[in-house]
Design goal:
Layout lengths: L2 H34 L5 H5 L2 E2 L4 E2 L2 H32 L4 H13 L4 H15 L6 H26 L2 H9 L4 H29 L3 H6 L19 H10 L6 H32 L3
Antiparallel strand pairs: 1-2
């Protein structure tokens, strides 16, 4: 068998593997769109729920999801990127640092329900934040930190050493080199890690179940210490806990969550592409 035949067979297998991944995803998205588009109207998106969530809209759940995502980003991004900068640029290479990196990798694989129980014990009970936006955002931030730290550190370490050397030769301090040269060049990779972490947080149910989500709350939160509805938990509730719920409402809620997550993904991808075009290597 010639190497060209082997190459064609390998390429065909790769295409087949890609189709096996993509086609089921497209089928699921198509089913959600077809069965949920009929429920989408202005009232569904902007009204408060009523009649045991069988009528009205999902506006509090949409706002709650956006607030939780924003709170998670505000708490996780500075800590995650800062930790990555320390591990990549300042931390000495010894067993303690290697143990920290191993712990971060292991934390990324912990089930989300464990983070929810941790948030319940630490933020809700011990720190007495109660079931609130603050407790939920901090719990989701801790869950996303391993992803952000790992991706950001890899992006920083991928920047060529020559950039740091030139900065030092021109009299710049290490922090000046990191701030003005290394960080801008690593920004596309950092944004990728942030996207992965924040989008995971936006779609999680278990952590917010213990720390913030309300079963039925037809009003908006007034402070960070209030409970709120959220789309993932709301979708779980109307699918399993409310008898006689129309299927169109369930699929409509799933469609709104899907569009919300995809919109954030597209916006972040455009930002990442902009900075990638400005990269100098």
């Amino acid at each position: 068998m010639s190497r060209y035949t082997v190459q064609r067979i390998g390429f065909a297998l790769l295409v087949l593997a890609a189709l096996l991944v993509v086609v089921p995803i497209l089928f699921v998205i198509g089913a959600i769109v077809v069965q949920g588009i009929g429920a989408i109207d202005w009232e569904f998106l902007t009204a408060m729920p009523r009649d045991g969530m069988k009528a009205g809209g999902i506006f509090p759940a949409i706002v709650g999801t956006l607030l939780l995502t924003l709170g998670t980003a505000l708490a996780a991004i500075p800590v995650g990127v800062g930790g990555a900068i320390y591990l990549s640029e300042y931390a000495p290479d010894h067993w303690v640092t290697r143990a920290i990196r191993l712990a971060i990798i292991n934390l990324a694989g912990i089930p989300s329900v464990v983070y929810g129980l941790f948030g319940l014990g630490l933020f809700v009970l011990f720190l007495n934040f109660g079931t609130s936006l603050l407790a939920g955002s901090l719990t989701l931030a801790i869950m996303t930190l391993p992803i952000i730290i790992s991706a950001s550190e890899e992006a920083l370490r991928a920047v060529p050493t020559e950039f740091r050397t030139v900065s030092a030769s021109l009299g710049g301090t290490r922090w000046q080199g990191i701030r003005h040269i290394v960080l801008p060049q690593a920004l596309p990779g950092i944004i990728t890690g942030v996207i992965l972490g924040i989008l995971r947080a936006a779609g999680e149910t278990a952590p917010i179940l213990f720390t913030v989500a309300a079963f039925f709350l037809p009003r908006l939160p007034q402070s960070i210490f209030d409970q709120t509805m959220a789309l993932p938990y709301h979708l779980y509730v109307i699918s399993t806990q409310v008898p006689g719920m129309p299927a169109s409402v369930q699929y409509g809620t799933a469609l709104v969550l899907l569009v919300l997550v995809l919109s954030m993904n597209v916006a972040a991808t455009l930002i990442r592409s902009y900075y990638r075009r400005r990269r100098q290597w």
